[in-house]
Amino acid sequence: MSTESLRRILGGPTGLGTSSLYPAPREEPPTAGSPVPGLYHHPVAEPDPVRTEEVDRRSKEWAIDEIGLYPPEWEEQFDGFGIGRYMTVCHPDAPTVDHLMVAARLMVAENAVDDCYCEDHGGSPIGLGGRLLMAHTSLDPLHTTPEYEPQWAGSLHDDAPRRAYRSAMDHFTDVASASQADRFRHDMARLHLGYLAEAAWDQTDHVPEVWEYLAMRQFNNFRPCPTITDTVGGYELPADLHSQPAMQRVIALASNATTIVNDLYSYTKELDSPGKHLNLPVVIAEREGRTEREAYLKAVEIHNDLMHTYEAEAAALAVACPLPIVARFLRGVAAWVDGNHHWHQNNTYRYSLPDFW
């Protein structure tokens, strides 16, 4: 297949590894926030405001009325997160709002587990493993004896994060294939393993080497979100294509890059919160003896390297496996990467940039 033929199938701008990834030229949108200077990214158009508002409305209705996820005093934070914008900009190919809601519920549930078990709202590294294991059974059901199954089933309603996981997973499996559901469970186990590594370092006051931190971030990252891009898009990338090493590498690189985006945009927010929060600039500063500014700029370079490698690997995979279903999935992952940056850049309720320029 010629390069021109591939471009006709996939569309999009040229550049290092980008020609095979995008369905249409992106527009420079009006923005509420400034991007991190020097950060390699692709601007995207503003998401559909009607869909955005509807996802916000339905997500809040689900969180309050259906599962009782949070108390009234958390409402401003829920609204400030902007789940509707996040999902709509990350999944532009979702055929319906119902498909967007599949992703929205899962992300809200994941954030509830992170906040309530690990972070701001009562989280602690102490005992985290037990809490995460019980929560994971909301996604990956326990198969046990009749004597003990009712006790497990009752435990799924014991706290808000487990209720959220259980409900979100029920909605997900209504539309996902068995293979897609199992793929998601696997990636959530990866996520929980990353949570536990970070918690163990917290308990021992250990600052990892930079390479160790990046290894942890490959697990404690956004991977469960782009991995379901086909489910949200209303189709399925077959398991044999999803599991091939080249595809797994593309997904991992994309997820790693998007997670460093979070480290960069949440940097000042984490510095202002109680305790010591590990993020890439903090680890670089301590382990490599750099100033805060130098460490932050080095983290930008690491992100850019990951992005360039991701795009080159995705382009190579599109050429090596020129199937329309592969092209579609790669476009979905690319849209998620770009949308994730757009949401972080524009969520000025949560994030502000350090004064390093």
Automatic annotation (TrEMBL):
Catalyzed chemical reaction(s): (E)-2-methylgeranyl diphosphate + H2O = 2-methylisoborneol + diphosphate
Database matches in Pfam families: Terpene_syn_C_2
Cofactor(s) it depends on: Mg(2+)
Composition-biased stretches (Basic and acidic residues): 43-57
Residues covered by region (Disordered): 1-57
E.C. no: 4.2.3.-
Statement: the UniProt record of this protein carries the keyword Lyase: yes
Listed InterPro entries: Isoprenoid_synthase_dom_sf, MIB_synthase, Terpene_cyclase-like_2
Keywords per UniProt: Lyase, Magnesium, Metal-binding
Family (UniProt): Belongs to the terpene synthase family. 2-methylisoborneol synthase subfamily.
Protein name: Terpene synthase
